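Hi R.,

Here's the chain you asked about this morning:
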Amino acid sequence: MNENDIKRISRLTAILMQLQTKRLITAPFLAEKFDVSVRTIYRDVKALEQAGIPIWTEEGKGYSLMEGYRIPPIMFTEKEANALITVEQLVQKNKDSSLIKEYTEAVNKVKAVLLYSTKEKVELLSKRIAVSPVALQTNASSSLALIQTALTDFKVLNITYHSGLKKEKTERKIEPFALYYNLQESWTLIAYCRLRKDYRMFRLDRITDIQPLALKFKPHKITLQKFLADKEKNFNTPDMPLS
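And the predicted structure, written out as tokens:
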């Protein structure tokens, strides 16, 4: 195998990864990314199709992988695995139980595809990392994973919210927009509140009940950066809740 063959195999693998992470990708984009001609990309895509990869071609728009197809798991380097294990220790101290559960399951899948020698080192490292137990006492939540799904599916949530200021409970229908994590280790949901007819921030540990509805909403036009900038301008810090 010569150097050109090695380069092409590397490029084909990289193209597959690009197709895995994007819904639709164009030949000119791939050509610019890998510094080759568009004609070369055409040949690469054809080679992948001949290898049995189900690539869907949309004339004039680009390529995408067939719905439901997944690339087999790739091997992680030792440094990449170490980074995930280190973050795992921090996640374990998080105040949302659903995040801990989902991250732990994801890391277990990563560990399953590691080479034996790397797996031994990762297990050793996990026993040699500790996070200080000294932390602010904040209430826990368990709804982060559910909210993340509703946010990306544009589904309305029905919540019962306990206000920290007036100490009252209100039932609201909200459109999840973004998630914000402040220095007090509290997850906050930024959402459009249909009750208040405006964007509000809801601390997850004050949501006493949450139910996803069949209702869907249109994607919000405002950006997260714009929301936080406006909030900081009015309150000097984006940590000030507006629920």
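The beta strands are 55-58, 62-65, 155-162, 169-181, 187-193, 198-203, 207-216.

Let me know if you need anything else.
M.
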